[in-house]
Write a structure and sequence with these properties.
Layout (H helix, E strand, L loop, with lengths): L4 E5 L4 H12 L3 E5 L13 H5 L4 E4 L8 H22 L3 E7 L14 H16 L4 E6 L6 H7 L1 E2 L2 E5 L2 E2 L4 H12 L6 E6 L4 E2 H11 L5 E5 L3 E2 L2 E2 L12 E2 L4 H16 L10 H18 L1 H14 L10 E9 L6 E10 L8 E2 L3 E8 L2 E5 L5 E3 L4 E4 L4 E7 L6 E10 L6 E2 L2
Parallel strand pairs: 1-2, 1-3, 3-4, 4-5, 5-9, 7-11, 9-14
Antiparallel strand pairs: 6-7, 8-10, 12-13, 15-16, 16-23, 17-22, 17-24, 18-21, 18-23, 19-20, 19-22
Helix pairs in contact: 1-6, 3-4, 5-7
Length: 423
């Protein structure tokens, strides 16, 4: 087998990192391209150098915002920049990851993701008209999205979802399918991949919540909606003869809950960790705490929303202290974890924290920038850091219609204010 140079756009994400690993294990030269590695498809920065000598490009990058216009701008702008660079480099095969039923999920609906799927359709049309041999991989929903689906239907302590038919799959299987397609000949068309089993949406989430010990109760809603879009039993499942993954949902659940249990095990009473190592461990435990308590935080947020139904939501951010702890290994320092809730359109004044801040996004999309750095848009699961000397010049909800929520963990001077105004 000849060694091939393959560039994976979005190579540091959930699917991209797995694709990179698989292709490298098969002996190929693989470049994980993302803004983190100096390759930006939106600006074109680093594209020419990254694609030089590449025969295959795998695009698994996603829009940082699900809002209609930002999503359309992302896929159209990045697509044009990418194809221009691919033509110059002489790329022989363009592989793109998309969604099963994209063409069936463009109907309108209040608060729906229909605009996002229209943007995905625009991306696919650019691929087809690029003149570069291509394969579009349509994948069903990932098992890893079960938590987000639950969040989308949460109303207080209940989750209201339809019994629409699905055929979800594990992210590992998605990555394996994309890697296989990349090494095959272009089909100049679409290939569908899906999980080995079909399941109803309400039952998927019911099993997920039960396995993860989440107390929320799933109520089946007769109106078939998927993120605000009207669907039927053909909308989210593949057509005839899809490529099927090997991992069953029950096996994935078992593996996931086993990993969670291991993460939650208390540390041994005795420890020979250094002071700095203990602080790092505390930070990591804080991030794990955020990830594991997301369902409860979501339920509380939904309850708050129901209490103010019919009123005008304030524009000021809501701060909730989750916990604080003296850092005995760092005299005079404390750890503080806050949950920040941005109403639609909310923004912060210019400020600084005089602390180390670790941000983890739970819901919606937020825009962050420190002075001298680039403005970034973050979605659930993404992180952001700012140091004691950083001035926070941009902090806002990316959406004018949907709330956003994130958790921040500070290492700060004990008793010092969390926020200090700045110019």
């Amino acid at each position: 087998m000849n060694k091939i140079k393959i560039v994976v756009i979005g190579g540091s994400g959930l699917i991209g990192a797995k694709v990179v690993s698989i292709l490298r294990e098969r002996g190929h030269e693989v470049l994980a391209a993302s803004p983190k590695s100096g390759v930006n498809t939106l600006t074109g920065e680093g594209l020419a150098a990254a694609l030089a000598g590449a025969q295959i490009v795998v695009d698994v990058a996603n829009s940082p915002s699900f809002e209609d216009k930002p999503a359309m701008d992302f896929f159209e702008t990045s697509g044009r920049n990418l194809f221009a660079a691919e033509k110059t480099a002489g790329v022989k095969h363009h592989v793109a990851l998309s969604v099963v039923g994209t063409d069936r999920l463009t109907g309108s609906g209040p608060g729906s993701l229909s605009g996002y799927f229209r943007a995905k359709m625009a991306q696919e049309n650019l691929i087809k008209s690029s003149g570069i041999p291509f394969t579009i991989v349509h994948a069903t929903q990932f098992f890893e999205f079960a938590k987000n689906i639950a969040q989308s239907g949460t109303d207080g302590s209940t989750v209201r979802l339809s019994s629409i038919l699905m055929q979800p799959m594990a992210a590992d299987d998605v990555a394996a399918a994309v890697a296989n397609v990349a090494l095959e000949q272009p089909v100049n068309g679409m290939i569908e991949v899906a999980g080995p089993d079909q399941i109803r949406q309400d039952e998927l989430v019911r099993q997920y919540l039960s396995a993860t010990g989440d107390p929320r109760k799933v109520i089946t809603d007769d109106k078939p909606l998927y993120y605000g879009i009207e669907v039927n039993d053909q909308s989210l499942v593949p057509g005839a003869n899809p490529r099927l993954g090997k991992i069953h949902f029950k096996d994935w659940l078992s593996r996931t809950t086993t990993q969670k249990t291991a993460t939650e095990k208390p540390p041994a009473p005795a420890s020979n960790l250094s002071g700095k190592a203990k602080v790092v461990a505390l930070l990591l435990c804080g991030i794990v705490f955020v990830a594991l308590s997301l369902p409860d935080a979501t339920a509380a947020d939904s309850s708050d929303k129901s209490n103010v139904a019919g009123t005008t939501e304030p524009k000021d951010a809501k701060l909730t202290q989750l916990f604080s702890k003296d850092l005995t290994d760092l005299p005079g320092k404390e750890g503080l974890m806050l949950m920040i809730e941005y109403p639609p359109g909310s923004s912060d004044p210019i400020h600084r924290h005089n602390a180390h801040g670790f941000i983890y996004v739970l819901e919606g999309s937020i825009v962050m920038q420190v002075r001298g750095g680039k403005e970034v848009t973050l979605i659930p699961g993404q992180t952001f850091y700012e140091g004691p000397e950083d001035v926070h010049v941009v902090g806002r909800n990316a959406s004018q219609t949907k709330p956003a929520k994130f958790v921040v963990f500070f290492v700060k001077d004990k008793g010092a204010p969390v926020l200090v105004p700045a110019k």
